[in-house]
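Fold Annotation — chain and its backbone
Encoding — discrete vocabulary of local shapes
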Amino acid sequence: MADEEKNNQEAGGEESSKKGGGFKTILIVAVLMLVEAGGLFVLIKSMGGPKAADATELQGLEGTGEEAPVEIMLVEDQYQNMQTGRVWEWRTKIFLRARQKNVTEIERVMERDAASISEGISMIFAKALDRQLKEPGHETLTRQLTAYLNEVFGYDADGLPRIERVIIPELKGFPADS
């Protein structure tokens, strides 16, 4: 029994010294972190600190003059699609984004070929799959319309397509047979 008490006292003494050692370790780590923070502060201040941001107006994002972008309404119409076995009507607005220098030629072609352009767009809608018409970003329709309209409107003197981008801000479908 005396041996057990002696062992318990020695064990208790070790535990108390371990607790004190743990506190010393925490204290040393805290001091090192403070020294590191102070060193970083001095280093950043000696480098001049962060530079102030200059809020100036961005220039050159949009072209000017003949290179300025222009949006032209191509169609605002309803097109049918029967790919699901039901007749769906798709109400849409389609705009073209082009450079100012191409607007007169685009309007001339739109006036001259209005029926064939409408027919081509109608065919794209008629052949489109239901999932393509319901895409959130209209990626497939935009890609198909861009390819078709580049064939119709052609390229300008610089060798660039007259149509920079096809924009579909509205595309709403509803069953027509209900």
Summary: The chain has a mean pLDDT of 84. The chain is about 50% helix and 20% strand. Residues 154 and 161 are 6 Å apart (CA to CA).
